What we know:
Radius of gyration: 17 Å
Structural class: mainly alpha
Low-confidence stretches: 1-20, 25-83
Shape: globular
Strand content: under 5%
Mean pLDDT: 75
Number of helices: 8
Largest sheet: none
Number of strands: 0
Amino acid sequence: MRVLFLLAVLATPVPGWAQSASLFSASVDAGERMPLIGPRASDAGVQAGASSLFVGSRRHSFLEPLPDRGVQGPVPAPRSMGGTAAEQLRHLIAEAEAGRAGYDAVNHGARVKPPKPPTQMTVGEVYAWIAATPGQPHAIGRYQFIPPTLRRLVDHLGVSPQNRFSPELQDRLADQLLIEAGFLALQRDEITRRSFMYRLAKIWAGLPLPSGASYYEGYAGNKATMTWARFEGAMAQIFPG
């Protein structure tokens, strides 16, 4: 399953590429490219890295670059994007994408697994595993990042290859995707909850559309891994009103 963007019913699509693959997909890197739509104009600052969408300076946002601490020492945990809403949403996405494996999930189609659990690897070690095992799926972590997405997010957020691929870092990378999907726009009442759900379904193919199918149903083995009723009910609890 892929980490992908927005739905055509919301806006005219802009060509792009897949963001990640799910633990439940059998796709490979060579087939991991598929259309997505780009960020809305109001979110251009986040994409360009020009400024934070949070009140105050960039240094007060969890979007600031991580310090280069090497393998030793913890990566600062991301600040909340709206109380517990972001945490609950990440849990829901992980339910669809990684299952019980959580932060140490690796796409089951990978014939050669990483030498260590992902959370014990540095970003650089994850890159090395990807480079050493071509021709197989490389979706990794709780949010099943595929290589192009992982590199883009790491570069965008200024993460050092020496940083550990820790739960905190994975959450931080996922939060950036949530922002690009419209999390903050939803908080500002600029989009509806249902519209945000469509956007999420175009990012994480394990999430369903109202039909119950993935937006990328059948593409490289993709399918929704939860029902629309489950998705809608959980979102209503996370974002009431």
